[in-house]
Every structure is written in structure tokens, then in C-alpha cells.
């Protein structure tokens, strides 16, 4: 009897795919960018670091998320800087 000729159902072994690219980082960059606007600028700094470290490894279809995360990170850091300058100015004017 031929071993390759099966009369029963064909069973396939599941293939294991290793995700070598960092598409999950695109989501993390976007979420951290939004958080940098909402609550704290260090989230934006982390998002920028993630973007710098993995920009070439993220697939092309996720680059829009990376760009949006980058822009929101910059906005969040700028808003934090403006708020910090404002607080320092108010504190300086109270001293006078």
C-alpha cells in the first residue's frame, strides 16, 4: 500500500510564523503620542525613542500610525514645554 495515498481526511500541521517586523510598535507609538498630549510628555519621549529605533522595521501599511504618533508626540512635548515655561514665569513673577 502506498503511504502517500490516504483515504481519510487530510491533516495539516499548523505553521508557526515568526513576526520579525515590529508592527506592534506602530500601535505603541500612536498610543504613547496621544498620551503625551493628554497627560504627560515623557510618554512622547518614549514614543520618539521607539520610532527612532524601529522606523525601518515597521511595514509600510503601518507607517501612517507611526507618523500620527510622531506628530502627536511632538505636539505633546511642545505643550508640556509651554506649560513648564508658563509655570516658571508665574513663579518668577510671584517672587517679584
Oligomer: single chain
Helix content: 55-70%
- Which stretches of 5+ consecutive residues score pLDDT under 50? none
Q: What form results from the Cα inertia axes?
A: rod-shaped
How much beta, percentage-wise?
under 5%
| Discrete helix count | 3
> What structural class do the secondary elements suggest?
mainly alpha
Major sheet attributes: none
Order of helices and strands, N to C?
HHH
Question: Ends: how far apart?
Answer: 100 Å
Evaluate the radius of gyration: 24 Å
Query: What is the overall pLDDT average?
Result: 84
Question: How many E-type strands?
Answer: 0
Features of this protein?
single chain, mainly alpha, rod-shaped, 96 residues
Write up this protein.
There is one protein chain. The protein is mainly alpha-helical and 96 residues long. Helices cover 66% and strands 0% of the residues. The chain contains 3 helices and no strands. It has helices at residues 23-38, 41-54, 63-95. Helix 1 runs parallel beside helix 3 and helix 2 (41-54) packs antiparallel against helix 3. The longest helix has 33 residues, at 63-95. The chain is rod-shaped, with a radius of gyration of 24 Å. It starts with 22 loop residues before the first helix and ends with a helix. The mean pLDDT is 84.
Give a brief outline of the structure.
This protein has helices at residues 23-38, 41-54, 63-95. It is built from 3 helices and no strands.
Give the topology, please.
Elements: H1 23-38, H2 41-54, H3 63-95
Amino acid at each position: 500500500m502506498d503511504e502517500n495515498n490516504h483515504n481519510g481526511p487530510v491533516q495539516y500541521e499548523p505553521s508557526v510564523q515568526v513576526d520579525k517586523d515590529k508592527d506592534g510598535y506602530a500601535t505603541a507609538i500612536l498610543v504613547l503620542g496621544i498620551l503625551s498630549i493628554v497627560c504627560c510628555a515623557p510618554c512622547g519621549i518614549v514614543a520618539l525613542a521607539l520610532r527612532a529605533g524601529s522606523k525601518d522595521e515597521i511595514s509600510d501599511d503601518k507607517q501612517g500610525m507611526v507618523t500620527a504618533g510622531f506628530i502627536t508626540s511632538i505636539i505633546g512635548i511642545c505643550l508640556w514645554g509651554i506649560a513648564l515655561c508658563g509655570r516658571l514665569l508665574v513663579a518668577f513673577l510671584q517672587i517679584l
